[in-house]
Amino acid sequence: MATISVSTRTANVAFLGEEKVLTSVERLPNILWEQLLEYASNNSGISKSMMSAAVYALENEIQQWIFNGHGIQLGNLGYLYISTSAKAKDTVDEAGAEAVYRLSVKFRQSSKLRNLLNTNVSLQTIGATTSTSTDDTTNPDSGNTNTGGSTDEGVGIE
Question: Is 74 exposed, middle or buried (0-12, 13-18, 19+ CB in 10 A)?
């Protein structure tokens, strides 16, 4: 089972006008593209140069399909799709391409990936400044608080 670390911090929540304890995921350094190719090559038995050529071709195809307005299903991971932000206009004549002020590519996780996160990932609190639950158990070896990850509420990672 994988473990994702979370940390807590006290912060002033402006719209509430009071201090609250916030929990957030401890993000590790990003995996670089070259590292990903190396790992994939080692785990697949395909040479790194062949893997690199295949991934480069996929990258170009995905960009072209996305740029033409298609959504892309990425196996059991989820979907990439175009999202727009546009200003609301009073008439149809004012609306259209001129009203769009932002294009972005979004990722929507698949239900399979979401279910895997909810059932195969445990959460571990590190560097906690305050305990927010009386149900937490403390690991005597590390001093960390284990909060589990198989709840119906999910792990809250997007």
Answer: middle
